[in-house]
């Protein structure tokens, strides 16, 4: 008997808001309460909070503030167990035990698909908690409350969750949109300079490949941004978040096809984080990655020396390093797992299929290429090394 | 500064074929080769095979057949490492080490998002391998080759992946459609009677709530189905698969809202599997669950005694048990974790929100209710107990 094939075909709609506020857990701020009150459920909603330990250190009253907030809005909200502290930073994504602890909490506190697992913290904690939320009961509702520039304008507002495994960044993960995102600018005031600055790298990245006007905004205000002028940073975060959301919605949100994430500068950034054992933080690594692929774009004749000099100047005014010593170890041996160039292969494998690297055809215009000339990339690394010693971009000798 | 909220909104399209064939790995069968050749990639595609040990025992030449098939189609296919044997049956979903082993294989053999992780086996192996495939690199392509009636007509063709945790079925999982499904009827010939029969329970389930004509088909052929007439089984699987695919596509495929999976008879089935330490297999448990909720529907006046008798008769002709001794232990103590009635609470928690149980308003018509009368359910259990002693459905005394 021959039976016809069946073709399954369907669409799934996803939507979530990204809110901007200051003082999310002040009892008088109705935002969180209102968003959950509109979920169509019956009160009170169970919420389990996972809090980045780094944030808790900077905000020692936050846990009691959360408890007070929930108590004050007991008609809508209910705590599911005590606020859990999660060790912050990329290292939390290397600890399977933390995911397991969150899953145990989901089990112990009977958090179901209509309950909420809220994460407050930097991108790493959001990634890790989001991963646990996405696989528990095939997905409990995930609230993201990003506390860093990087997570507020990029990683925290997207659809990806992940943890590291086998020494590889984001080896495990999936696509699972959050229920809602709350960007609370109050958290930015207490950031270390490194983390304040780090998040700007993702804004630079997206401006360089998509929006020259946004690059000019950052160029004009680079010194003020470095001096931590909060209103400028708020504008930067809002615009950067908007560009990232548009990219996700306009393309192939779950990266099923050949559509790419906004990953300019990222192949080397991922590798540098790993090579430096995460001494170099993600935003810092992205800044170096941007510098590297800008130099490479210039060496390929895609970017003028003036444009390259502008990019390098903005990075430096913001206070970024342009180079790290790990970049030259085993550099010319692309097959060596400790070589920066090995990152190209890992990058290809992680996304699958053909190698695709974003370069610049001028400021504001990204272009995808499928081949990288190792020798030219080595030359680009050496050029960055010279910049780090004070040499400035100039026409080739 | 007050900045407007951003609303993210997008749709993701999913599609995959469900093919029907016999002898998928016969070198002369072009199906598998052709499907992968059309993936838009460049040859050869890496495929890693995970094979249910139970299937391997019944088909001792399968591994070498797979190797020969891949070699014969080397322009399109390439093996990524040796065929991995996975201990079959529900127990494989209780072993986190198996997921870990698959992830290690993904890492070791450089299986990327454009490579394939193929699972050959019963529903449990497909669920487990599918889960690993869905989280590795945020999703490598998953080929499902279901070998049982149950997986060919239900679990293997849908969008769910899962493993068990904390003693709870499917506690971990997600929604991730397969790349393609291949139903190979040749595997059905070697099934144990229990597994041949077990899969019919899901067909009965979907017919009772959706399609009276399909129920009449099974009623007319119950004896022939029990006698293992393969062409009838092929028709049953095709129609059942079609109904399941329609339900997924027509509703809320990722169960984000209040839309429900086709889970008639399943709240008690899940609990019975657990209470019997998986001695009772899923299809067998579903048959009991169908009987139980049919009796309950009758006791509520939704189903006539004649309709109930027809359902019970079909289940018996097919060879199903209607009752298991685990059903009466701690029965009246719904708070006891070993009580069948505790399954109602677990079922609610797993899906979240309000309790929703499917009952029957006549054959072919499901109806959702949000409350279960414990006393009436206890009475339904006792009635099944009496049926198992030879008493037949009749009007209440």
From TrEMBL, chains A, B:
Domain 3-dehydroquinate synthase N-terminal as annotated: residue spans: 85-196
Entry superkingdom: Bacteria
Ion transport among keywords: no
Needed cofactors: NAD(+)
GO molecular function, one term: 3-dehydroquinate synthase activity
Pfam families reported for this sequence: DHQ_synthase, DHQS_C
Keyword Transmembrane in record: no
The entry's keywords: Amino-acid biosynthesis, Aromatic amino acid biosynthesis, Lyase, NAD
GO biological process, one term: amino acid biosynthetic process
All residue ranges annotated as the 3-dehydroquinate synthase C-terminal domain in the record: 199-327
Alphabetical list of PANTHER family matching this protein: 3-DEHYDROQUINATE SYNTHASE (PTHR43622), 3-DEHYDROQUINATE SYNTHASE, CHLOROPLASTIC (PTHR43622:SF7)
Name the UniProt record assigns to this protein: 3-dehydroquinate synthase
């Amino acid at each position: 008997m021959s039976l016809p094939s069946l073709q399954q075909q369907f669409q799934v709609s996803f939507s979530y808001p990204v809110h901007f506020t200051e003082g999310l857990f002040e009892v008088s701020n109705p935002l969180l309460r209102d968003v959950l009150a509109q979920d169509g459920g019956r009160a009170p909603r169970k919420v389990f909070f996972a809090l980045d330990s780094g944030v808790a250190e900077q905000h020692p009253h936050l846990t009691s503030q959360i408890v007070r907030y929930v108590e004050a809005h007991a008609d809508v909200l209910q705590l599911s167990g005590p606020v859990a502290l999660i060790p912050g930073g990329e290292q939390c994504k290397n600890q399977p035990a933390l995911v397991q602890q969150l899953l145990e909490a989901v089990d112990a506190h009977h958090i179901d698909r209509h309950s909420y697992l809220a994460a407050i913290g930097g991108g790493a904690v959001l990634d890790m908690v989001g991963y646990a939320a996405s696989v528990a009961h095939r997905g409990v509702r995930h609230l993201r409350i990003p506390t860093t520039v990087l997570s507020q304008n990029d990683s925290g507002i997207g659809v990806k969750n992940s943890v590291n495994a086998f020494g590889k960044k984001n080896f495990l993960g999936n696509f699972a949109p959050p229920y809602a995102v709350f960007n609370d600018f109050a958290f930015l005031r207490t950031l270390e300079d490194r983390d304040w600055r780090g998040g700007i790298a993702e804004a630079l990245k997206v401006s360089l490949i998509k929006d020259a006007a946004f690059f000019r905004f950052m160029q004009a205000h680079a010194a003020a941004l470095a001096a931590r002028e909060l209103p400028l940073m708020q504008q930067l975060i809002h615009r950067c978040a908007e560009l990232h959301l548009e990219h996700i919605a306009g393309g192939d949100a779950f990266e099923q096809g050949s559509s790419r994430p906004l990953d300019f500068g990222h192949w080397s950034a991922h590798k540098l984080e790993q090579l430096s054992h995460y001494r170099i933080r993600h935003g810092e690594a992205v800044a170096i990655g941007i510098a590297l692929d800008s130099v490479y774009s210039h060496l390929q004749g895609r970017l003028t020396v003036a444009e390259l000099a502008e990019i390098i100047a903005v990075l430096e005014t913001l206070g970024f390093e342009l180079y790290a010593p790990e970049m030259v170890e085993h550099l010319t041996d692309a097959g060596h797992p400790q070589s920066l160039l090995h990152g190209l292969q890992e990058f290809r494998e992680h996304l699958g299929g053909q190698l695709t690297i974003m370069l610049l055809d001028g400021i504001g215009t990204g272009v995808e290429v499928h081949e990288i000339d190792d020798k030219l990339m080595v030359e680009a690394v050496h050029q960055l090394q010279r910049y780090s010693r004070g040499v400035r971009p100039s026409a080739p000798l």
